[in-house]
Structure formats: structure tokens, C-alpha cells
Amino acid sequence: MSRRPNVLLFIMDDQTPDTIRALGNPHIHTPRLDALAERGVFLRPYTTVPVCTPGRAELLTGRTALRNGCDWFGRPIDGSLTLLPQLLAGAGYHCCHVGKWHNDGHPRDRGYHETHFVFPGDLAAPYSGQMFSYHDGDELVTGHSTELICERAAEFVDRAPLDQPWFCYVALHSPHDPRICPEPWMSMYDHMLPPLPENFLPEHPFDNGDMMIRDERLAGFPRRQQEVIRHRADYYAMISHHDYWIGKVLATLKRRGFEDDTLVVFTSDHGLACGCHGLMGKENLYEHSARVPLLLAGPGIPHGERHDLTCLCGHYDFIPTLCNLLELPVPETAEGVSYHEVVLGQRDTVRGTICAAYRQCMRMARDERYKIIHYPHLGRTQLFDLLDDPQETNDLLASWRRDAEGRVCPPPATPDRPVPPPDPEPKQGAFNNPLYTPPISRAEADAIVARLLGTLREWQEKNQDPIRC
User: Fold this and answer.
1) Which of 25, 48, 52, 206 sits at 20 to 30 Å (Cα–Cα) from 17?
2) Is the CB of residue 293 less than 8 Å from the CB of residue 268?
């Protein structure tokens, strides 16, 4: 093809990376996303501030939330930055926005040639649940947000230009609460309720600094198992619902003959706890909240590959990556690092470390294996080994793990040497339960924390973080 590929980008609200069946979750039904994963590449970028407005601003600017002006609700994106639609419009793309904006201003003033059903700016009436109303010419259109947005996106694809490349940004509200969708999806999981998450807790073990924000009050205290399971069933229902409607857009793409000429991107602004660690919202820096799913499929993209366990990258790295894939110059205002070589299978990662922040409450730093979450208001730090403990259930700095300096972990089992039974009279300083013994010494754990705190402080300095750890 002589011209550049089209770009069709879907961005969800609150979807975690572990909610796609083909990528390891047998409890959810996502056949269209499964098919997209089979013909594309999967990564899990971090979002610096895991709430919707900053998360979307990072994707749009190529800068962290601490560097683009938008680190919380209501804060404007720095007007001097080149946004994603402005970049593509300048390269000759016809740009269309459908759905949620939620940043300052209106997308019609940010490089898009056409906009449809913009939330909240174009709402014709207050919304109830997921039922939104918009003026469509002289007609008042009311319907479920997912269906309205995907119908209009499919309409755009059906009439998209043939003589120039196009960019369509499809921003859904799903699976954000209120978690309501039509039948048969709403009751889809009633007879096969999803399990509790592996890292479920009745309550978070300490005050993380924002325990009573709106999202945390969606369920009672302490968290009841059945209530969390019901929330997760409704959450999965919304994802299966939008999977179906995204399929409608992709079917139109194929029918128009665009499938081989279009880069399809599926992602989210942030994740969600929904019962993990005793939390309900996204406002924390555990993996389930700070990371997002990212699927890329289209011309030149390998099929069925995963780099989510090796590649450290952020949402602010998307613009440089897209520019490299489209052979466009990266705008000078973008500060991210391109991971296009990872997408193409030419390297494993583009960063050795990555950091994130949430308001004044939390800061995070991690390398290829270890991660710290620091709570400045408490002077407290957690340390997790993400290789052995991806669910972050074993804080290696918990005080009770650090008391007995002489504890010895039994050697690992091998086929010719099974784990010996516990000693009925253990010797002083011995400990026979490897599940509750850190695989690193106290001194090594302290050294890891010191190193990652150093990484975090350097990042804070570079990003002009007003909080110091």
C-alpha cells in the first residue's frame, strides 16, 4: 500500500490487563479480543497516575502526568504540547473522536476533524446508569453508552476516506461503574460466578492515604466475599458486552477491506482493584491498577506474541512507538521511549526501571523483578518480588518476616530430593516453611529498597515531583 496505515484505537475505562480470556483468564468470555490477541502483540504499560483524566492525558501527550500538566481531575493539559490527534492530522490523517474525552476543552479543538457523542461535553441530558442522551442533528438519541459509541464508530469506518489515511479514537465508558449493561450480558455470569481474586483481602492492611475516595465506597467495610464476587461478575459482564460491540466495529473494518491496512490498538486508561488487596478502586499503585492491557494488531505486527512479562513501558511511551510504526517523526514535546522494537520482536524491553505516583499518598519504583511502593505520609515501604509473587501478596518488608535473622529456608525440591518433612523439634534459628520465608536476606532486601528508592528519587527530580521520598 502506498499510504500509511489507518489507526483504530479503542480505549476502555477501568479495564485490567487480566480480563482477556486468550491471555490467561478462563473465567471471562471475550472472543473478539481473543481474536485480536491471536493476530497481534500484547503488552502491559504502566500509567503514572491511575485515574482516567491523567491516564488519557499520558496517552495523548507522550509525557508522564507529572510533566504534561494533568496529574488529577480538572487540571488542563499543557497547551504547548503536541497531542496525538494533532500529530496525525499534521501527517495527513483524517481524525475522528467518538466517546469519552474527560480532559479539558473539547476534542474538536485538539486536532480532530470530527467528533461524536463526546462525554461529558455533548450530553443532551443528565445520564442515568450507562444510558446517555445526545443530539444527533435534529434527533435526540438515547442508548447504552457502549452501543452508542460503537455504532457511531462503525458508521465512521463505513464511510472513512479511501484517498487518505484516517485515525479513529473510540473511547468507551465501560467497564466503569455503574456496571450495568443489557441482557443477555448482564446475567451472563450469574450461573458461573467468577472466583475471588487470588489477592483478595477483607480490608487493606493499613491506611494508604485515600481509603475513602468514591470508588472505595462502592462496597461495604470489611469487604464481603459474596459482594466482591457480585461486583466482579458485573464487571466481567460489561467487558463481555463491549467485546461484542467492539466486534461490530472490527467487522465493519473487515467488510470495508481495511483490515490489512489498519493498525488496531486496544487499551485502557488504568486498571481496577475490584476486591484485590481489600480495595475496590483504581487509586493505588498495585499491578492490577497501575497497569493496562495493550493489544496491537495490523500491518507488520507479529501474530500471537506476548511481551507483558519482559517489557517495562508506560502509556507515555505510546506516541513515540506509534510514530516509529507509522514512520513518522516523533514530536519534540513527547518524552517517552519507543517500544516498537519490542513489538517487532527485536528486543525484550526498553526500560530497566519504571516509576509511578498517586497524589501525595504513594510512589512506586520497580525493575525487572522487584517493586517498591512507598507511602510518604506513613514513611512506610512495601517490597514485592514480582517474579515469584505477581499478585503482590508477600510484602518482604513486613516486620514479622524480618525478626528472626537466623531463619533458614529448606533447599528447593528436585525429583531425586523431595522437600523433607518439617522437623518436629526445629533447631534454634531454623525455619521449615518456605512459603513464609523470604528468598532473600534482610540485608539484601534493604539493599534492593535503597537502590529502588534511589531510582525513585532520580525520577521524581526529573519529573519535578513536589513530593520527596
Assistant:
1) 206
2) yes
